[in-house]
């Protein structure tokens, strides 16, 4: 089993969370305290339901957005796969594939080699999908961080502009008062 988690957004707080993985017998397999991400790979020894506990109790004021990715693979040996075809109720094993190339000459390929190639291709596709999901989670996390940083910069800029306008109006008022003379009629 592979278990990957990543805290994507923490609402103006730390991007960390505590995680526990518990097996069907109640034993703690993994215990991470205040981590922002981790990838855990382990062999499952027991059949049943495993518990994944994502704990944010130490950060009561901020909720978290967490990306979780779980893959459970069956460790059966791929070489045991058999390819069969059913003909009129009789079952026969196909050992070779007979084909003809574009020049018209016949060739044969062992079905086991085709099967191995397809399994290898499927494994590569699954790994590529897994890497894309991880990249997507990282990209989402970066976009949340960028939007939070933009919010902070916008608030600070608004404060500075307001302060500069206030100081400017105060200066104009004081300079006007400095040159303001009372009207004296002679």
Task: Please characterize this protein's 3D structure.
The chain folds into two domains: 1-75, no CATH class; 111-185. The protein is of the alpha+beta class. The protein has one helix at residues 111-179, and strands at 2-9, 17-22, 28-35, 37-41, 51-55, 65-71, 84-87, 90-93, 96-100, 106-110. The radius of gyration is 33 Å and the shape is elongated. The strands form four sheets. Strands 4-1-6 form a three-stranded antiparallel beta sheet, covered by helices on one side. Strands 3-2-5 form a three-stranded antiparallel beta sheet, with no helix packed on it. Mean pLDDT is 81; it is low at 78-83. The longest helix is centred in the last third of the chain and has 69 residues, at 111-179. The chain is 37% helix and 31% strand. Residues 1-72 form the GOLD domain. It is found in: Endomembrane system; Membrane. Belongs to the EMP24/GP25L family. It comes from Danaus plexippus plexippus. Pfam families: EMP24_GP25L (PF01105).
In helices, the fraction of residues equals 25-40%
The count of strands amounts to 10
Please state roughly what percent of the residues sit in beta strands, choosing from under 5%, 5-15%, 15-25%, 25-35%, 35-45% or over 45%.
Answer: 25-35%
How many domain modules? 2
Largest sheet: 3 strands, antiparallel
Shape: elongated
Q: Ranges with pLDDT <50 over ≥5 residues?
A: 78-83
Q: What is the string of helix and strand elements?
A: EEEEEEEEEEH
The strand order across the widest sheet is 4-1-6
Task: Report how far apart the termini are.
Answer: 100 Å
On the 0-100 scale, what is the average pLDDT?
81
How many helix segments?
A: 1
C-alpha Rg (nearest Å): 33 Å
Secondary-structure-based class equals alpha+beta
GO cellular component, one term: membrane
Protein name: GOLD domain-containing protein
Family: Belongs to the EMP24/GP25L family.
InterPro entries: Emp24-like, GOLD_dom, GOLD_dom_sf
């Amino acid at each position: 089993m592979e278990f990957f988690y990543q805290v994507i957004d923490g609402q103006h707080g730390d991007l960390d969370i505590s995680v526990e993985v518990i097996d069907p017998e109640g034993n703690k397999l993994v215990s991470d305290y205040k981590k922002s991400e981790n990838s855990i790979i382990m062999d499952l020894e027991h059949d049943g339901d495993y518990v994944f506990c994502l704990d944010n109790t130490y950060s009561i004021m901020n909720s978290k957005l967490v990306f979780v990715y779980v893959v459970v693979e069956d460790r059966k040996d791929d070489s045991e796969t058999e390819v069969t075809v059913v003909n009129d109720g009789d079952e026969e094993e196909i050992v070779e594939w007979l084909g003809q190339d574009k020049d018209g000459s016949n060739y044969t390929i062992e079905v086991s080699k085709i099967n191995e190639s397809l399994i290898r291709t499927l494994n590569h596709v699954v790994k590529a999908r897994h890497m894309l999901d991880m990249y997507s989670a990282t990209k989402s996390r970066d976009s949340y961080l960028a939007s939070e940083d933009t919010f902070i910069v916008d608030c600070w800029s608004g404060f500075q502009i307001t302060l500069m306008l206030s100081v400017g109006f105060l200066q104009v008022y004081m300079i006007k008062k400095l040159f303001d003379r009372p009207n004296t009629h002679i």
